[in-house]
Each structure stands twice: as structure tokens, then as C-alpha cells.
Amino acid sequence: MSATAAPTARPAAQPERGGSLEQRLAARLERLRAADLYRVRRVVEGGHGAVLRVDGRDCVNFCSNDYLGLATDPRLARAAQRALERCGTGSGASALICGYNAEHARLEEELADFAGRPRALLFSTGWAANLGVLRGLLGKGDTLVADELNHASLIDGGRLSGADYLRMPHGDVAAFGRALAAADAGGAASGDQREVLVATDGVFSMDGDLADLPSLARLCQAHGASLMVDDAHGFGVLGRTGRGTLEHFSDLGGAPFPIPDIYVATLGKSIGAAGAFVAGSDQLIEYLVQRARSWIFSTAPPPAIAAAAREGLRIVRTQPELRARLFENIARFRRGAAQLGIEPGPPAAAQGLPAAVQAQTPIQPLVLGAESRALALSAFLRERGYWVAAIRPPTVPAGTARLRITLSAAHTAAQIDGLLQALGDGLRALRGGAES
What we know:
This protein is of the alpha/beta class. It is built from 15 helices and 14 strands.
């Protein structure tokens, strides 16, 4: 197998003129293939843990968000089984009709307590949570100021909200400040009572770096704006007790900063289950119950999934050694990568916090640039028994195709060392192909 073979040349697709829907879709799909942007699903048999059986072949999994290894933990499965026996497989309706189970209510109470907020509201997915918040709170005449590398759900929620949607250069706090000052001036000129909301990821899902939440929180306080943080990749992982990116910054010391108004996190990553939640004030949650369409018009999650998430949250609370093991694995990977001359991390052009303030998160991207290079290295690793998916546009900006390597508490030292050896061999093969 060659990791450096150039993609087969294909004739340029003809402009779409007339024809059937099938013909037009076929032409679009061909263009995706020609640009190395075509995506293929892989079938996983059994559990989605540190070792996967993918398309009939065992692979060590280095691209999952299961950061604490709870997705295949038998304790979560037993909690779900007990709830299945009590509550059945489905909720039957939305939470406002008859779908709100005691398991949902208990999970919301426990999440609110862990997040340090008065209340929490359970959503079926992180996507639904972000859309529910942004469409529920914002409308025409309001302003949304957002980091350009936010998750797609925040981007789509902003677009669908009808608000003036301003995307800031990644990590550029000064740009956020200028945008908020302009929003202040616009509001003063019109005399309107408008919502101004800043939205950011806590940990950016494709780069693994952190937003400067203390600075953004202080800016929002100074300008009377609200702050929304999507901490999907920080919750359960960062901070002394796993409470996420906000706790990480509090642990660093320094001047206190205001608590964000809206906190969103998911339950399908570090918690090992599924779903998401929004945490905040009683007024915020009550308003979302009345106005968040993605919550109001969705069937409530199965009670068994809520029971599994409750068990995952209990483990996060009571077993800090899982986080300790995760960060040992991250450090081992980074040490080995440095010895091989491999520099995982965001693209060099990315702005953000100083390195001394950044956490080393489980997300360790290896930016390769061209889509063909990312696909070739991913295929090379798969042949060696390591599953690391190639991430390409539009998931990441053009020219920054990458392998998004993620570490878990469930990985062994031997598995990490094996991945590093395979990465070194694969990168040498790529360089050799470029020189030939």
C-alpha cells in the first residue's frame, strides 16, 4: 500500500444544466470525490471503546470523544438496563406532553448541582441545545458576536436566529471588544432594548485550544452583554474536579471573573452516554422551556440514556484518577511526538491564549494541509491497526486538513507508543513520496 499515491485524475464535472435530481446530485458527488472531500461511513461492531472493530477489523481508536473511557463502562450499561426494565425504551412524547421521566428530572438536578447553577435543562443533542438557546433568545435587531471557529451548531443557530451575526477572528479578544463597543453605539443610537450575546466554545473541537473565558466574561460585563459557553469538550475533563473550562481558569488563580450566563455541555463525550444540557439561572431555564423550539418539539430522550448519564456523572465526581490517567496519556503522547519531531496543535496562524495558560487537552490535531495528505496518512495508520479519521473542509478551514488525534483514559502506554511509531513511519513515507 502506498501512503503517497496521488489521487486519480478525474474529468471536471460539467455545469449543471437541467437534467433530473439524480443527475445533478451525481455531478455534485463526483466533484466531492475529485476534491478529496467525499466522506464514507465505517461500520463499528460492538462497543465504541479504545479498541474498535471497524469494517471487520480490530483497530485502536484514537479519534473518539470518549475521553474518560466511560462509553463502554459496564456500570453505565447496568444503570441503563435497570432503567430499561423500569421505564421501557422510549419516552413517547416531548417533555411538555408526557415524556418527562423521573430519570430526566434527577439528571437535571444533578447536572445543575455539578455545574454550580440553579437549574439545568436536558436536550437530546448538543446541536439541539445550541439551536434552542440561540433561536430562543435572539431575533431580528439583536446581535450575536461569535468566534469564527465555533462548533457548527453555534454557527447554524446564529444564522437561523435572525440576529446580526458577527464572526470574530479566532481567539482575538480585542476584536470581540471592538464588536461589543459597536453594538453599544448602535443600541444607544436606536434607543432599543436589544440582546447582545457573545458565544464561544470552551475547548475548540478541532484545534483543542481554549477560549480566553476570563477576558470574554469581563468584556461582556463591561458592555452589558451576555456570555454563552459551549463546553462540550471541557466538561468532565478540565478543572480540578472535572467541572470544565471555567474551573480550569479558576484553578489558575488570578483576578476573579464573572460566571457566564449560559453554560452548555454534552453527555456523549466525557460522560459516556448521550444528550446535552443548558445550565443557568431559573429565569433562563424557564424561558427556554417556553421558547426553545428544539426542546419543545422533540421527543424526550429515553429514560435509560438519562440513567446512564447519571452514572457517568457519578463516576466523574468520585473517580478523579480517570482524569489523572487521561492527562498522563496526553503528556506521554506529547513527549513522544516531540522526540519524533512531530508538533501536534492548532495551525500556526491561530490566535488565542499564551501557551502558559492553555491546558493540554485530549484533542491533539496533526495539521497536514492538503486533503490528500490527511487521507493518505489516515489510511497508512489504519493498515497498521490505528483508527484516526482524516478531518477535511468544511469541518475545518481550507488548507488545514488534519488528523484529529484524541486521547482517552482507556488507552494504554503501549497503544500510545504504537501510534507514535506508526505516525513517524507514516510521515516519513509521506515525505518520501513528496520528494520522489
